[in-house]
Design a protein that fits this description.
single chain, 625 residues, alpha+beta, Phosphoenolpyruvate Carboxykinase, domain 1, Phosphoenolpyruvate Carboxykinase, domain 3, Phosphoenolpyruvate Carboxykinase, domain 2, 9-stranded mixed beta sheet, 18 helices, 35 strands, 31% helix, binds sulfopyruvate, binds manganese (II) ion
């Protein structure tokens, strides 16, 4: 039997050895020892979450050039390599044991072969580098939602980012029962030149769900490397599948209703489609902007934020539309900027920041000047479209006070939305749980964005906005959503929203601020306090109600023509969408539940009937009985 303690004793200094051994869990010792044997680091640093240790991580990220200080002493900037600017879906693979399959929609490879590839890629990857070992808790501590998580990385940027984004867990690990389920993350940036991963052609993320372990190598971009974010989400979806709860790509926010009422909503939108901006709408409170765990507790659905910070898209963040984030990014609180442009005065600049574009600076391509082109002759924008900021939620003025409630908050409504130019109306409510799960969650389509590598603007099937992270067969995943509704007495209502509807000239027809009204309408609907029009696709708002809400919450008029333009039902587009979705399920998802086809076909018939009666574009009032 391998003597893991002896390996640790030989590789760690006394101080680090003692810090590690203060956690009695033998699987922790084994994981760290095996990582040392594989990656062969020069040194190992165990972080015990003390001020000294976390400050050491931040300072070392700067000392090694993984981050650079900015004019604001609380700020740093990090650059990922030119070709390492987003999640790499193609090279993110599930390692599937022999005889298993996750279905043709998910990228996977044979587990044994995959593990060999991982060993090959990570062997000696930390020679001349220091390995960091950190402990965290996904979800609030000591709660039914908590999942303990170990992160090994040779990137001080990753270790520093996680400090802002997650709940520290060293003390939690010290009291953890020996057999408690743990998620294990091992990352190496690989060979670095100017502090940037150079072997990006050999990068990858390998998810060994059999052992609850994820490996990530030769990459730095947070979406590929921050184990607790999307890497752990894939493991959490499998755990949730075994235990009858849901792990979702969702924000979690509080919407204030009449009087002192607050109603919590979760919302699943694909990356870059408005999750963060929705959870920051004026007059609301935020619990989380990206990841939520949902469990049935005492007859209700309750949810928590997995994280405690935001890794948000900075493009278009400006003083007028995003005052809360703007303030945080201009205060004396920690923030890491990534892939923005840095001026001569060490100030960060990003696309759509509301100022005159800079003429020169430093960005992810190195020195940048106006007109600089890449190797294909394409102009390099001054900052990357997927440039980001990393901040802590407690630094936001709108953080909800229930963020750390170990029981989570009661979910009053669930919202699905995507980048959809021509089908869904700005807001509608499903007929019931099943109808919402199937025609909204399971039917979600969205255009790709800069958050993933590859072309943007391509319409893709993205059920529950979780397609990039689902780690079980899609049919089973949908069935779990359907069944989840059976375990609770009071179900949240399900809504869809669409901020990206366009007119015949391809111009967006709703304003960024309008989402405030849609949220208020959903809040009232979730308490049954406002009527709605029953249409073939769901319940739509009455014009008069929206007009009042626009006046009350945005202090602006809402002409009837605008309502007609936004809420008229686009029948041919909806029929075409329904056909696309049916085709995907028929052709590529053999275990799609039967009820899915029934519900989609019934919707198709309702739309065709309405088309015969009222034509291609139907005003909601045509359905008032
Ligand atoms: C997303 O792309 O959905 C994000 C950022 O939230 S990350 O997954 O970390 O790349
Ligand atoms: Mn996300």
């Amino acid at each position: 039997m391998t003597d893991y303690i002896a390996i640790l004793e030989a590789a760690l200094t006394d101080v680090n050895f003692r810090k590690l051994l203060a956690i009695p869990n033998r699987r922790v010792h084994k994981f760290v020892a095996e990582a040392i044997e594989l990656c062969k680091p020069m040194k190992v640093f165990v972080c015990n979450d003390s001020r000294m240790d976390t400050e050491y991580i931040r300072r070392t990220a700067i000392a090694r050039g993984e981050e650079a200080p900015l004019a604001n002493p609380y700020h740093t900037v990090h650059f990922d390599g030119f070709f390492d600017q987003a999640r790499d879906k193609e090279r993110t693979l599930y390692l599937v044991p022999e005889g298993e399959s996750l279905g043709e929609q998910l990228a996977q490879m044979d587990r044994e072969k995959g593990l060999k590839m991982v060993r090959n890629r990570m062997d000696g990857n930390m020679e001349n580098k220091k390995m960091v070992v950190r402990f965290f808790c996904l979800g609030p501590l000591d709660s039914p939602f908590s999942i303990p998580c170990v992160q090994i990385t040779d990137s001080f940027y990753v270790a520093h980012s996680e400090d802002l984004l997650y709940r520290r867990g060293y003390e939690y690990f010290r009291r953890l029962p020996e057999d408690r389920e743990i998620f294990w993350m091992m990352h190496s940036s690989g060979k670095l030149i100017h502090a940037v991963s150079t072997d990006w052609k050999k990068r990858g993320v390998a998810i060994d769900y059999k052992e609850n372990t994820v490996y990530s190598y030769n990459t730095q971009y947070a979406g590929n490397t921050i184990g607790l974010k999307k890497l752990a989400l894939r493991l959490a979806i499998r755990k949730a599948n075994r235990e009858n709860w849901l792990a979702e790509h969702m924000f979690l926010m509080g919407v204030k209703g009449p009087g002192r009422r607050k109603t919590y909503f979760t919302g699943a939108f694909p990356s870059g489609c408005g999750k963060t901006s929705t959870s920051m709408v004026r007059g609301t409170t935020i619990i989380g902007d990206d990841l939520a765990y949902l469990r049935p507790i005492d007859g209700r659905i309750r949810a928590v934020n997995v994280e405690r910070g935001i890794f948000g898209i900075i493009r278009s963040v400006n003083e007028r539309d995003d005052p809360v984030i703007w303030d945080v990014l201009h205060s004396q609180v920690p923030a890491i900027f990534s892939n923005v442009l840095i001026t001569e005065d060490s100030e960060p600049r990003w696309l759509g920041d509301g100022q005159d574009p800079p003429k020169r600076g430093v960005n992810h391509s190195g020195q940048w000047w106006e007109g600089k082109v890449d190797e294909n002759g394409d102009e390099i924008p001054y900052a990357h479209k997927n440039a980001r900021y990393t901040v802590r939620l407690p630094d936001l003025s709108n953080m909800d006070d229930q963020i750390d409630d170990p029981r989570g908050v009661v979910v009053g409504g669930i919202i699905y939305g995507g980048r959809d130019r021509d089908t869904w109306v700005p807001v509608q409510e499903s007929f019931d749980w099943e109808h919402g799960v199937i025609t909204m969650g399971a039917s979600l389509e969205s255009e790709t964005t800069a958050a993933t590598l590859g072309p943007s603007g391509v319409r893709k099937f993205n059920p529950f906005s979780n397609m990039d992270f689902v780690s079980i067969s899609i049919g089973k995943y949908i069935q779990n959503h359907l069944d989840f509704g059976k375990d609770v007495d009071v179900l949240p209502r399900i809504f869809s929203v669409n901020y990206f509807l366009t007119d015949e000239n391809d111009e967006y027809i709703s304003d960024k601020q309008d989402k405030r009204v849609w949220l208020q309408w959903m809040e009232l609907r979730s308490h049954g306090e406002i009527d709605a029009i029953k249409t073939p696709t769901g319940y739509l708002p009455f014009y008069e109600d929206l007009k009042k809400l626009f006046h009350r919450h945005l202090d602006k008029g809402f002409p009837k023509e605008e309502y007609d333009n936004l809420f008229s039902i686009r029948v041919p587009q909806l029929l075409a969408k329904n056909e696309r979705i049916l085709k995907v399920y028929e052709e590529t998802i053999p275990d799609a539940p039967d009820i899915l086809f029934k519900v989609l076909e019934a919707q198709h018939e309702r739309l065709e009937e309405a088309q015969e009666k009222h034509g291609d574009r139907i005003l909601p009032e045509s359905f008032i009985e």
